[in-house]
Amino acid sequence: MDSFFDDDESNELVVSSPGQTRVSMLAIEAELLGELARAADDFARNNMFTERQRTKAWNSVRKEIAALSNFMLFLQQSADLSLSFHLAEEPHLWQAVTFGLVKLFLRWMQLKGYRIKTINDHLDVIKLYARLAHDAGFQTADQLISITNIPRIRGAQADRIDIEREQQDIPTNIGHKKPEPTFLEQEEFQALLNRPDTPQGWRDLVAILLMYDLSLRPSEAVSLKLKDLNMDERTLRITRHKTHDQQKARLTRRLYDALTRYLSLRQDRSPEAPLLVRSLKNEKLVERIPRAEPQVEAARRGGRRPYSPNRPLYAQRQPTSEMTRSARRKKVKGEVELWTPPITTRALAKHVHLIGLNIEEELHQATRMPEERLNLTSYDGRHEWTRRAIRSGSDPIAVTKAGGWKGHSAMVARYYGELDIVNEDIILE
Q1: Pick from 167, 202, 222: which residue ends a domain?
Q2: Domain total in the chain
Q3: Contact in structure between 282 and 198 (CB atoms under 8 Å)
Q4: Is 410 inside any structural domain?
Q5: Residue 206 lies in a domain
Q6: Residue of 10, 36, 37, 112 whose CA lies nearest to 70
Q7: Do both 345 and 200 map to the same domain?
Q8: Which of 115, 195, 342, 397 has the maximal Cβ count within 10 Å?
């Protein structure tokens, strides 16, 4: 009969005690757990960037990708170094990012003519990703400290840099973004509100008043649906995309009257229909049309920037919306899906800009200098609203809340600081 004990070479029985068996099993399980932990650490470190991006707002991620794509463009143009992987995806690459490299990048941006604010924003992104790379184990503490200690360009230093660039014929603002908002004179503002008595004209007036009377951001205005509007209460439910707040705002009298006329011209009155819809060149509204293929709709809604150097990553990170998801739903055979497309932020910006040029042609007959042209954008209404509210004596805290900001607002502080008497509202006793 075979024994259940093992015999060694000297025929002596080896019997393990319960304590020895426990120690052996603990050693085996600790080794297995250690292997799993090392694999988990490697996964977390390698995906540190992408995991963070999944939890952030798309606009924030898009700006970070664009900033790091610009960093990669600097490496390509300055050192003929084309990276196969993106700095916004691969923490491994950051082990080679040093203080000197970042300083050269900032100097390169100055010589290229980037705005000081853009340079500071790009520096903030680099500091953020350097901290993430350090947490992932790909940046040393010395590298991180050196990079994070690079100061932002502020105040008088920024003015001196711009003066020096102007003397060397280097631009101080590249791109289409205006350095300063455009404020309208009373006659110009009345002309802005005097829209044609057409469906498109009333739609334009509603869009303008949403921004000039309620301080809506362009993206917040175009995302409104009819269900957000309560004409009985004369209120509007607003989703602040930047802060994710839900607010209710009271309609002004002229906005209520414009909405009443505009809604009477609408065909699609379903609650899920967009408030601001597209229009045609004949100024008719586009409602209840057959839905095109998803890629066609994406192109019509602005799509992805084909000229962007970070297009592959931009496309990969771009989230799908309810609109694109519904476009991919399978249709029943023979069924034609109808929908009402909203106006896009890009189309709204172009339309507002064209209205401004038309007002200038009508009132000033193109006698202004190029730098004085009525260069309206869809964000000018928000600036105008903030300045009017502050100059009319509104409390800055109330302005901050009504404007959809959280905490400190640079725009509110800016226009509050423009008051003629800076200590007008200060009470000492």
Answers
A1: 167
A2: 3
A3: no
A4: no
A5: yes
A6: 112
A7: yes
A8: 342
Q: Residue 235's Cα: distance from chain center in Å?
A: 27
DSSP letter string over 229-259? EETTTTEEEEEETTTTEEEEEEPPHHHHHHH
User: Would the CA dihedral through 193, 196, 198, 204 be positive or negative?
Assistant: negative
Regarding whether 218 and 72 lie in a shared domain, the answer is no
Residues 29 and 88 in one domain: no
- Quick check: is 172 in a domain? no
Does 196 share its domain with 289? yes
- The torsion angles phi and psi of 309, rounded to 5 degrees, stand at -65, -20
Tokens of 68: 């790091």
The answer to whether the Cα torsion of 247, 252, 257, 262 is positive or negative is negative
Position 190 scores a pLDDT of 94
Listed in sequence order, the residues at least 6 apart from 199 whose beta carbon sits closer than 8 Å to its beta carbon are 262, 265, 279, 283, 284, 285
Helices (H), 113-198: 116-135, 141-148, 155-167, 186-193
Q: Are residues 228 and 119 in the same domain?
A: no
Q: Which amino acid is at 154?
A: R
Element (H or E) spanning 396, and its range? Answer: helix 396-402
Residue 84, domain extent: 51-167
β-pairing, 235-240 with 245-250?
A: antiparallel
Let me know whether 144 and 77 are in one domain. yes
At 350-383, the pLDDT tens digits run 999 999 989 988 887 656 555 566 889 999 999 9
pLDDT tops 60 at residue 426: yes
The Cα–Cα gap between 312 and 292 comes to 24
Q: Is the pLDDT of residue 424 over 90?
A: no
112 part of a folded domain? yes
pLDDT digits (tens, 9 = 90+) for 102-147: 999 999 999 999 999 999 999 999 999 999 999 999 999 999 999 9
User: What whole-number percentage of the chain has pLDDT above 90?
Assistant: 52
pLDDT: is 245 or 212 the higher one?
212
3-state DSSP percent of the chain in helix, strand and coil, to 5 = 55, 5, 40
